[in-house]
Give the backbone structure.
Amino acid sequence: MALLRLHRHPGALFMNRPNSLEHFWMPFSANRDFKQDPRLIVSAEGMYYTSEDGRQIMDATAGLWCVNAGHRDPRITAALLRQIDSLDYAPSFNFSHPAAFELSARIAAQFPEPMNRVFYTNSGSESVDSALKIALAYHAARKDGTRTRLIGRERGYHGAGFGGISVGGIVRNRMKFGTLLTGVDHLRHTHDLARNAFSRGTPEHGAELADDLERLVALHDASTIAAVIVEPMAGSAGVLLPPKGYLQRLRAICDKYGILLIFDEVITAFGRLGTATAAEYFGVTPDIICCAKGLTSGVIPMGAVVVRDEIYETITGTSETPIELFHGYTYSAHPMATAAALGALDAYEQDDMYGNVSAVALPWEEMLHGLRDCPNVIDIRNLGLVGAIELAPRDGAPGARGTEAMRRAWDLGAMIRVTGDIIALSPPLIIQPDQIAELGELLRQVLSSLR
Ligand SMILES: Cc1ncc(COP(=O)(O)O)c(C=O)c1O
């Protein structure tokens, strides 16, 4: 079968399996289930992983929305080899290395004006925490220190730190972890199957949901609100797309009340929608952008917070202490991470990978919406190189159908991601039309086989 390619002799089955699976406590995973029936990956190239039993598995999720350049891009590998040969580590507290500055200029050039200042982290979660702290520090620097309230959105995902889960809106990520940050409130989410099911691209209905910020301003008063953080396109909660005009309206309300607007672009920055940022795609410039993942194409952990000049200038210009922001990480701008990021940006540019997203966006949309007739499908969504197939939950077992789909896809030769009963798809930006067709055929088999 074309979709199930064996690379090694069947005798090689399971030769890569470790002696014990007990000691690794896997994050956000069904540990007990996985250890009964592990899905182990031993190598990768371009659009494909190789499983421990020698099968080629199409990476339909770019790992975890991060391997944007495809696996083992030679430019990233070469940059890392050069780097380890010259400088392994340099601190960023009061010292630095040239590549950190070069990378910052390259990022600033890709991000909307006037977002030109870059603060480095090691992950999306740290980018979110850093962005929230920068927002508070900015208002304090302006002697507007009553602005401490942070506004997130229901169903938002902003990583796993206490800041991120406080402004985040996914119940299971919050419910076991105490009272979280105080002074946080949430906008209503924008997911509306009744009005928007099977929309192609951004949905028509729901711009007025941005006015929910007016409700929170009326409740708390603008003078207590520091920032609003949203994913311009929510990924982890199951690909929830912004209704047409929603982000513009949110920007206008933030402007009206002097509230900072933070876009969490951990999954959208670096090409996911065919542009460097979702801010550019939607034509809405926030005050702060969080990024990570695609920054290094997932090869080395790295995140960044990119801010408007005025935010940097205010915090540094008004500081009464030599250190202007008491915040940072041992590994901020780690030389290996900056090398990987420079390699990734080279790869994106040299092969016009963002351009490829725009070029394949239509076949991608057609493939996804062609699955509408499959059993249990209640919605299909797409934007750029992102897709979602929402399945009706099985009676009494929400999430079971989604998990079954993930396992079935792995058996047939694709890595897909599920949130509950929503299948989320986000392949590397290098995907070609024949691979989209291959994925479509596989997904049809998966969907048709579900109970
Ligand atoms: C929008 C968003 N913010 C933050 C994060 C957290 O990133 P990390 O897992 O690198 O901490 C993610 C991860 O998926 C994300 O999608």
